[in-house]
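User: I'm putting together notes for a lab meeting next week and I want to include a structural view of one of the chains we've been expressing. I don't have a solved structure, so I'd like a prediction I can at least talk through. The sequence is below, exactly as it appears in our construct file.
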Amino acid sequence: MSQLLSQKKIRECLLVMQEMFPNAHGELVWDTPFHLLVAVILSAQATDISVNKATPALFSAYPNPADLAQADLFEIEGKIKTIGLYKSKARHLKAMAQMLHETFHDQVPNEKQMLLTMPGVGPKTANVLLGEAYKIPGIAVDTHVERVSKRLRFVKQSATVSEVEEKLMAALPKEQWVKDHHTLIFFGRYHCTARNPKCEVCPLLASCAFGQKYVGQ
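Assistant: Thanks for the context. Below is the predicted structure for the 217-residue chain, given as structure tokens.
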């Protein structure tokens, strides 16, 4: 069971996941590309639910980059203190907003390399922003996507996040990347969970070495 799945098998797995979660979608609530960027930065090592609880007051207080750039750091922290790592995230948000205001004239870039120059923005954040706000194809590899890809042998257990992204991009049709990204997240968030995964009722169990070991315990 150590052999990696072929690109054809990976696509077949995604079709099964899409049948399970036909309405998979981004669960962060946002109204502008700027607020989406804020929400995605906040979502690192935090649940979308916790982010969505904090962002209404944050968005109301800072409707645009200039407002957030000029905000008192302590006040930003106060609005996101229910979210993990809130102190470092507050610093990232303020610095990001300053750069967005001063360098990009309050417009969130629609190019990945430009986004990656901003504080708090890594490849996953950039891909989510581009896919959600601008419908630019990409696959954001978060903890769910990485876990599912490794359990189902899309990639080696030692694969880096970049290698997972490259393998999925190579295996899946470009026009499906954003949809497939959401499908993988839903499958990992609600079925192939980190703890107590639903292996016994998983239609992909035959392809999953992890699941077969888990069920056999």
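A couple of points you could mention at the meeting. The chain has twelve helices and no strands. The CA atoms of residues 150 and 156 lie 6 Å apart.

User: Perfect, that's what I needed.
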